[in-house]
TrEMBL record:
<dbReference type="InterPro" id="IPR004360">
    <property type="entry name" value="Glyas_Fos-R_dOase_dom"/>
</dbReference>
<dbReference type="Pfam" id="PF00903">
    <property type="entry name" value="Glyoxalase"/>
</dbReference>
<feature type="domain" description="VOC">
    <location>
        <begin position="13"/>
        <end position="136"/>
    </location>
</feature>
<protein>
    <submittedName>
        <fullName>VOC family protein</fullName>
    </submittedName>
</protein>
<dbReference type="InterPro" id="IPR037523">
    <property type="entry name" value="VOC_core"/>
</dbReference>
<dbReference type="InterPro" id="IPR029068">
    <property type="entry name" value="Glyas_Bleomycin-R_OHBP_Dase"/>
</dbReference>
Length: 141
């Protein structure tokens, strides 16, 4: 079956975020404001929680849903930091950085020129997920 533009990328790895406290719809709005995400799908459950959503962020797919603790063990609850960082490689890190801060992200590691040649920093979104932002500024030495 051929893929259409609205389906998003077919290959690669797609992060799938679990959002605590019934805030998945709010997270979608944040990702749209912070990173220019485009919504492809939204499927609510019968009890009003968001069962599945699909966004395109910076050309890649991102799926998310409200937490459903009744379907997973206690070790799968979303915590303050789950060890995962979502990385966005962009043309202009300063613009994306400011846009994310304006939308409500918090600085984890300041945006600055790094020794490997990128302008790079790390943000935390209001839902506990870490996002790194990078843009090339020069060839690594």
């Amino acid at each position: 079956m051929a893929r259409t533009e609205n389906q998003g990328p077919a290959d690669g790895v797609t992060p799938h975020l679990s959002i605590p406290d019934r805030r998945a719809a709010e997270a979608m709005d944040f990702y749209k404001a912070a990173f220019g995400a485009r919504e492809l799908a939204r499927m609510p459950s019968e009890d009003g929680r968001l069962m599945h959503a699909h966004l395109i962020v910076n050309g890649g797919s991102l799926m998310l849903h409200d937490e459903f603790p009744e379907h997973v063990g206690p070790d799968h609850r979303v915590g303050p930091y789950n060890g995962v960082t979502l990385h966005l490689q962009v043309a202009d890190a300063d613009t994306v950085w400011k846009q994310a801060l304006d939308a409500g992200a918090a600085v984890e590691m300041p945006l600055q020129d790094q020794f490997w040649g990128d302008r790079y920093g790390v943000l935390k979104d209001p839902f506990g997920h870490r996002w790194s932002i990078g843009a090339p500024v020069k060839a690594p030495t």
